[in-house]
Amino acid sequence: MDIQIIPLFAAGIGFVSVLLAGYGLIGYLGGASDSARLKERVSGTAVKRSDALAAPLGQALKGAVDFFGRLGTRIGPSETAEIEKGRLRLIQAGLRKADSHRTFQGLKGVLGVGLAGSFLLVKVLFLPDTSVAMAAFGAVVLAAVGVYGPEYWLSKRIVRRRLALSDELPDALDMLVVCVESGMGLDQAVDRVCHETRHSGPILSSEFKLLTLELRAGKSRAEALRALAERTALDDLNSLTSLLIQADAFGISIGRTLRVYSDAMRVKRSQRAEEKAAKMPVLLLLPLVLFILPSLFVVILGPAGIMCMDMFLKMNSH
Q: Locate the Type II secretion system protein GspF domain: which residues (predicted)?
């Protein structure tokens, strides 16, 4: 009898917990709405209800990010070289906030401990017969997944960003050539291209925008171009910046340099598209063998198989 009551007791506790959590959430959001109305009366400005309801979620997210940052400060690397290396990888992935490195390190620590602890909790509650060695192995594997999983995600994000930059670069170079040959200086041309490509090439536009801000802040053109190449970690853009630095140092025509490099980039993009097209038959072979051919075999040979089975059954009946 006691064993039968335990599930009901657990269900009751779960129901009460969800009910209390719902009441607490409603009260919290109601308090946010009241504070928004009070702020509206005091300031005399209209406050959107959606913004007032989203404010608690934003505060909770900000609190979680601050917690990850404090944790990352404690468990992250202390060497300056390692910190700069990690910060550079985050910048190459498009994460430019000042505390992104600490937040990323804290997130890895929370994921590692959380996954390992969840596995051990599941083992204690639902798999008590599991051996200690197997439990330790599973905890270590999940902890490694929590620590190295974000690193794998960051590497994939960097690769995707480089590919997007390589696709956006030829069109931006063509526009840069037109601007330079029309009489603009290189700095003004970069600013113009940044403005014109903010929708068609947002990633390269943001990098050019940062390059423009660095030039306006007083950094030399060579240093700003080297910083651009370091942020993007793209070989084509690195070669372009080297050519621009050499052209600026030796007095070579920048317009002619950009035109030659733009033609080479356009050819390279066409070759990359042809390479992808050539790989398509090989990539389609696996789904063709696994999914399409078995379906065709079932459709074509299925009726013949059914007829053979019926014929054998009739032969056995006689």
A: 173-301
